[in-house]
């Protein structure tokens, strides 16, 4: 097991139980006591845990753990969605709007490493600072951040400053991640401020797509993301059922299955 995987496992146990002992780490992950101590030291240096005598306790924090420490059961599906988006929905030289979220982050990674975009480049507009940070090192991608007030849980910005920037740009395509896609309410997210920014970004695009793995289909979160009319379609994975596909198409969406 790689260290990052082990660190993720330790953090998951801390999240569930509040504290963990060095001996428990050694036994659970089949490592030496010395390795277990070093793992806790690494996490403490990154301010993700508080070291205690013989172990560590979880910190009281108001943010989600960094993505590299979170295990995502749908990571493979999100990677497939990202590959389809980069291959079929985005063309070199285009301006692309990208919201926050784990699926959108997978799309950002795929756009950043695709050689087909190197010659003509891309302009990427995002309200997610983690996506901006990941892509700003790519010389062929011009990154525009909307600005606004940051949300600790999602690393997304929203508010009047975001609106000002979005009102002054035009996009070829917008790719919007969601927390749920309800067959009655449509695309939804947990935060009404992010819903507003996502909807605004979608309206600035010639064509807007929802990017969501199949576990989000049939799920309803708190805030709706605009009206269904602002989205051309949804990109999801093969876990979606035939009945769900038919119902989504009846709502007027094109469905692309990765």
UniProtKB/TrEMBL annotation:
InterPro entries: Carb_Metab_HTH_regulators, DeoR-like_C, DeoR_HTH, NagB/RpiA_transferase-like, Tscrpt_reg_HTH_DeoR_CS, WH-like_DNA-bd_sf, WH_DNA-bd_sf. This is DeoR/GlpR transcriptional regulator. Pfam families: DeoRC, HTH_DeoR. The lineage of its organism: Bacteria, Bacillati, Actinomycetota, Actinomycetes, Micrococcales. SMART domains: DeoRC, HTH_DEOR. Residues 3-58 form the HTH deoR-type domain. Coiled coil: none annotated. Keywords: DNA-binding, Transcription, Transcription regulation.
């Amino acid at each position: 097991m790689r260290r990052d995987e082990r660190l993720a496992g330790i953090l998951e146990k801390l999240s569930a139980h509040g504290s963990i002992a060095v001996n428990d780490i050694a036994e659970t992950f089949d490592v030496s006591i010395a390795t277990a101590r070093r793992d806790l030291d690494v996490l403490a240096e990154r301010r993700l845990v508080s070291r205690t005598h013989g172990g560590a306790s979880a910190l009281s924090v108001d943010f989600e753990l960094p993505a590299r420490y979170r295990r995502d059961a749908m990571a493979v599906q999100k990677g497939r969605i990202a590959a389809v988006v980069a291959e079929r929905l985005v063309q070199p030289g285009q301006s692309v709007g990208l919201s926050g979220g784990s699926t959108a982050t997978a799309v950002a990674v795929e756009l950043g490493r695709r050689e087909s975009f190197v010659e003509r480049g891309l302009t990427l507009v995002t309200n997610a600072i983690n996506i901006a940070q990941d892509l700003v090192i790519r010389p062929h991608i011009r990154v525009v951040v909307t600005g606004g007030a940051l949300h600790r849980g999602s690393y997304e910005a929203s508010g009047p400053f975001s609106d000002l920037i979005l009102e002054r740009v035009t996009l070829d395509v917008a790719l919007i991640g969601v927390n749920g896609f309800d067959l009655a309410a449509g695309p939804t997210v947990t935060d009404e401020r992010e819903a507003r920014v996502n909807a605004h970004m979608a309206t600035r695009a010639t064509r807007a797509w929802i990017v969501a793995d199949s576990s989000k289909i049939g799920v309803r979160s708190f805030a709706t993301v605009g009206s269904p009319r602002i989205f051309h379609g949804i990109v999801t994975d093969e876990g979606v059922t035939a009945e769900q596909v038919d119902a989504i198409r009846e709502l007027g969406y094109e469905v692309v299955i990765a």
